[in-house]
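User: Need the bound-state model for magnesium ion:
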Amino acid sequence: MRIGIGYDIHRLVPDRPLRLGGVAIPFELGLLGHSDGDVLLHAVCDALLGAAGLGDIGEQFPDTGPAYQDADSAMLLAATIKKVRAAGFAPVNVDANVIAEQPRLAPHKPAIRQRVAEILGLDPARVSIKARTHEGLDAVGRGEAIAAQAIVLLDDAGRC
Ligand code: MG
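Assistant: Bound-state model below.
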């Protein structure tokens, strides 16, 4: 087994759509980023890459050129899981935290779980999406940003 951890944070700004876990969330602000700014999918990408020893999202999908400008992060995660599977690893489960003061994410958790599972080719029972606020503390707590953490387990049995 291999384990990996991922973390990301993006600033909330006007005039951007909000996408979390590959799902469009109705809100007056969206996440600033070179891609669509989907912090949750970026954290899952980094956890997968970390577990597989394949670097990080910045190395795999550089934000310096036009290739990933406004990219759909679902595409980045699909490309990531393809690389991870090609390296001989199979995902076992994913657990994630989304930390946002607003909007309220509870109503969206089932759709996000379904979507992340679909992109990864996993049973939704193997994907856990948790949401919490930051109790009004720091930039996330002031509603200036949304952060996400993810942890994944990979089975490397096929690799050895
Ligand atoms: Mg990011």
